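Q: How would the structure tokens look for this protein?
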Amino acid sequence: WYLNEWVETTHTIDYGVKSISGNEVVLQRIGQMPMPVDLKVTYKDGSTEEFYLPLEMMLGKKPTSATFVSYWGWANPEYKLQLKKPVKKVEIDPSKLMADINRSNNIAEQ
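A: Here is the predicted structure in token form.
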């Protein structure tokens, strides 16, 4: 899937934080190219947690200390994440390694 998207298409990568409401975060895939997502969450109590959202089409997962959550199906434009504590801030791709064409929607605060 990865090489096909990069070599055989003109698809772009663009992910964004759609909403934060209490303990729920909704992410959206705006671009056409599916990618696994690294996510950093800052809770209202000041603690932080990192999450890794692999794609359903991937064979395996990368080694990481982040919390693995369920796969993001490539055909679903949105992903809902229910967390244990109230959320203050969410950041997609905190390391800035993904070739996201619009980083302005990668961070949201409640």
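The chain has one domain: 2-109.

The first strand starts at residue 15 and ends at 21.

Upvote if useful.
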